[in-house]
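Message: Study each token:
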Amino acid sequence: MNRPVLRKRTGKKLELVEEQSAGRRRVLFPAVKGRTVDAIELYTSADYHTITVRFQDQTQICLTLETGFTVRARLGDFKSGEERVLRRWADIQSV
């Protein structure tokens, strides 16, 4: 049985939007909507891991991750409504 998604939104642009359903959680960052991506960087060391998305307007969002993760990256095309994988990269594991 699919339960309805619980969505929290305060209406403030810089706040997060959380969507929850059974066993899943999705967090959106409305503050970056419409910005053009300039670069994406994954940095990993023994005790510090981040994914930084830099935008052409000289702003960035930095996501700090805890130890013990694997990143599986793929580039997908959704023009048809379904994902068509254009490229997959090798898994990246934390140090």
User: Anything to note?
Assistant: Strands lie at 6-8, 17-21, 24-28, 37-44, 49-55, 60-65, 70-71, 74-77, 84-88, 92-93. The mean pLDDT is 86. The longest strand covers residues 37-44. DSSP finds no helices and ten strands in the chain.
